Amino acid sequence: MVPVELPSAKPLRTSSSDGFLLGLESLMRRTGQGRHVATTVLECAGAPDLATIRRTADEVGRQYPILHARNARGGDWLAKWRTDEVSPAAVPVHVWHLPGVAAEGEEISSLNEWLALQLNSREIDIYSAGPNLVFHVVVNSPTRWTFVLVWSHSLLDAVGMTKFLQLLAGVSVPVTGAADEAPASPISQLYQQAKPMIEEMRRFPRWKIRSLHRKGTRPGESRFLLAKFGPEATAAIRAKMAQTAGELLLLPYFAACAARAVQSVIAARHPDEPVSILLTLPVQRQSDPAKRPLFCNHMSPYTVLLEPGELVDLKTSSKALYRKYADFMRRKLPAAMQALMRMMERCPSRFYNLPAFVYMRGEICSLFHSHTGEFLPGADSIFGSRIVNGYHVPSVSSPPGIGIFFSQHADCLTMTLSWKEGCLSPLELELLKQTLSEDLGAELPPP
Amino acid sequence: MEQDLIELIRSEILDTTEPLAPQSDLFAAGLDSMGIMQLLLAIEDRFGVAMDPADLSRENFSTAEKIAALVAEKKGTATP
Question: How large is the ipTM?
Answer without folding.
Answer: 0.80
